[in-house]
Amino acid sequence: MAEGIQFELVSPAEKLVSEKCHMVVVPGDEGMIGVLPGHSALVSSLKAGVVKMYKSENDNEPKRIFIAGGFADINPELCTVLAEEAINVEKLDKAELEKTLSILKEDVDLAKEEADKKRVQQKIELVKAKIKAAA
Question: How confident is the model at residue 109, as a pLDDT?
Fold first, then answer.
């Protein structure tokens, strides 16, 4: 088996990660996907959640990056994540996110059109996922 898998994480704003990892875990729509060298080829949509990058087999504290959904393209040598939004979990401010959540909950109550309510509800779900990642 290879010494690691190349991992690339790209958001619309920038390439956040390009490095070898022992293992990467990504939040697939159907559940978490653990990616090791030699993984079968796979393309999967991703849900909002945390990508975990393990540098070595004994790494107990992986690097954690929150993504707001996207796609993963996996093959035996490379895992590429194209994220809608990505931010290092350490940069998530739980208190600020909770304020945002409170404002969004008020906005959903004030929304008159069903489409507006749905759009605000989607933002609420994303903020909730960020709060969970920051905890």
Answer: 83
Going by their DSSP bridges, the two strands 78-83 and 5-10 should be labelled as: parallel
7: closest CA among 69, 100, 93, 77? 77
Could you tell me the sign of the dihedral formed by the alpha carbons of 82, 66, 16, 12, in that order?
A: positive
Please compute the mean of the pLDDT values over residues 72-89 and round it to a whole number: 96
The domain locations on the chain are: 5-89, 92-134
Looking at the DSSP bridge assignments, the partners of residue 44 are 72
What's the CATH class of domain 5-89? mainly beta
State both tokens at 120.
């605000």
Say if CB 43 and CB 74 are below 8 A apart: yes
Which of 6, 17, 78, 7 is closest to 42 using CA atoms? 78
**pTM of structure:** 0.88
